[in-house]
Automatic annotation (TrEMBL):
Segments traversing the membrane: none
Annotated CDD domains: CDP-ME_synthetase
Name of the protein this chain belongs to: D-ribitol-5-phosphate cytidylyltransferase
Subunit structure: Homodimer.
Organism per entry: Pardalotus punctatus
Keyword Transferase: yes
GO terms assigned for molecular function: D-ribitol-5-phosphate cytidylyltransferase activity
């Protein structure tokens, strides 16, 4: 079994403005909703934990209801990124942050709520690598050379760029390994650390497998990233088809074959619902901003 934890408790200092970046609207929809949907579309992910600051819990619940997100549990964030992720993991092992324990997964994915474009292929590769090695994470080549400055503000040395990689998300871990690592963490690590893979290595001697990621794993950090995200989402939506069928066996079979034949050319989301009985669900689909619809009747 596989579950996902999405830390979304940050305040977005580098973005500026009063709204944290994960709640900024892109094409009229909050950024965090895209990240949740990316995980939600992967049928083998059992539970999605979204960790948000206390003042944004009701906002997140409203987003879940408005966009019809399923399998999502909202958890209160800590004061730092690592404390927030730890809170998300505790939902599977302790009753502190949830009224009921969720089923503990074999593998847990950790993914940023402001990386909306992750695809199932890279998630699957990272999960399979974590199952074999205990921990795994996506990486990308460095696009800039990293330099170190001396105390006087002058160049001290630079790193050989070819030897280093940028650590990205998603990352995945055997649940017992990453949970044990967080249980053993010092307060310093919880307050100042940023790299989950390092915690698995430091406290559980688990050397993570690094998986070459794709160019679309980038993180929305600055305002220019929001504009870029909007452009990408517009392009993706214009190529997307939602196939709606009745639950009638014949209709459902056609609804299955049609996406299979289209998916090599276009992004297809197949949804089998009874139009006469689930008008509310249909409205959720419309609010999801799929631009093109095929109704099999």
């Amino acid at each position: 079994s596989v579950s996902a934890v999405l830390p979304a408790g940050g305040i977005g200092e580098r973005l500026g403005g009063a709204t944290p970046k994960q709640f900024c609207a892109v094409q009229g929809r909050p950024l965090v909703s895209y990240a949740v949907r990316a995980m939600e579309r992967i049928s083998w992910i059992s539970d999605i934990i979204v960790v948000v600051s206390p003042e944004n819990i009701e906002t997140m619940k409203t987003i879940i209801e408005k966009y019809g997100h399923k399998r999502v549990t909202v958890v209160e964030a800590g004061i730092t990124r690592h404390r927030s992720i730890f809170n998300g993991l505790k939902v599977f092992a302790e009753n502190e942050f949830s009224s009921r324990l969720l089923q503990k997964p074999e593998v847990v994915i950790i993914h940023d709520a402001v990386r909306p474009f992750v695809e199932e292929d890279i998630v699957s590769k990272v999960v399979m690598a974590a199952k074999e090695h205990g921990a795994a994470g996506a990486i990308r080549p460095l696009v800039s050379t990293v330099i170190a400055s001396a105390a006087d503000g002058c160049l001290d040395h630079s790193l050989e760029r070819a030897r280093y990689r940028a650590s990205e998300m998603p990352q995945a871990f055997l649940f017992d390994i990453i949970y044990e690592a967080y249980q053993q963490c010092t307060d310093y690590d919880l307050d100042y650390g940023t790299e989950c893979l390092h915690l698995a290595l430091k406290y559980c001697k688990t050397n993570a497998k690094l998986v070459e990621g794709t160019a679309d794993l980038w993180k929305v950090t600055y305002k220019r990233d929001l504009y870029a995200a909007e452009s990408i989402i517009k392009d993706n939506l214009s190529q997307q088809v939602c196939v709606i069928t009745n639950v009638n066996e014949t209709h459902a079979q056609i609804g299955f074959l049609l996406p299979e034949s289209l998916k090599s050319q276009i992004k297809v989301e197949a949804i089998s619902i009874s139009l006469s009985k689930n008008d509310g669900h249909l409205q959720n689909i419309f609010s999801g901003q799929c631009y093109n619809f095929v109704c099999v009747n």
